[in-house]
């Protein structure tokens, strides 16, 4: 019974929210939102009276507003006026589709209006608008303008797929906007650490591309922007360092039971133990230098150390006396043997950490490009 009441209350709350939101949108002049909320409510409850009223009042207001807005854009001298008109016609068509899929709404608005024909026309003009703006940006011959042109050609192609040479121009604009970075090989080092896969695995921006020297040569690049190089400073691993501490434990443990006045009571015995805990620690440090150099001026854009510190440790213990006196969480160390670190464990961990730090450094540097 309680569950049914909760469900009913939730349903009433949702109904009230839809109804109130639709009314508020209508009062605030957001006719599109008012229609959408009313249609959605009628899809769930085709006989909802207040939603019918909101839909009946707001639909024609929404169509008139959006149609007028589209015409105002078209007759204006605003930049990208056709693209703005597209948005208004798409909203009219969205309302058309929403009503068609809501039987309750379709009873109120049996002949919803669509602007598919008009939308096709303005999309073509909007594509032309974006395409021409892209050409003008390309003519300015700067990297930032090439980026702007790329997105304009993307818009043109989205508005009218395959519009003129929008795809070809998109690719050319992206190529012009892309920072070309040649990755110089890492010098051989004692552990044969190679950071080139890390560099080529970084994808900080769609307008940054890394090349090997051979790839740059094969591509016949007319411009190289940066050179990147990673130099291995070295790797150091400490000798094992062992420390120890001794703890004395005392506790009372149940050893038997006895009968007192006809009742069984536990018998406790005091027990003691001594535990010496050893900890072995090995530390490691690896470091590399990330160089980023301007290909034209030769100036260092970045010259910084990247350092990774790692630590391995493990414990074992010797115990004397009655082990029952030692807390269970600690007792498991009793009798364990001295541990030894797996071969190359810290080398692998340090390299992995350096990989992550290098990737983050490159992403941070090139992310704004």
CATH architecture heading of the largest domain = 2-Layer Sandwich
- The total number of structural domains is 3
Biggest β-sheet description = 6 strands, mixed
Report how far the terminal alpha carbons are from each other. Answer: 61 Å
**Low-confidence parts:** 4-19
Which class of the largest domain in CATH terms? Alpha Beta
| Overall residue-averaged pLDDT value | 91
Give the percentage of residues in beta strands.
25-35%
Given the helix and strand composition, which structural class is it? alpha/beta
Order of helices and strands: HHHHHHHHEHEHEEEEHH
Query: What is the overall silhouette?
Result: flat
Q: How many beta-strand segments?
A: 6
Query: Would you tell me which CATH topology of the largest domain applies?
Result: Double Stranded RNA Binding Domain
Radius of gyration based on Cα positions: 37 Å
Helix content: 40-55%
Helix count, per DSSP?
Answer: 12
| Subunit arrangement of the protein | single chain
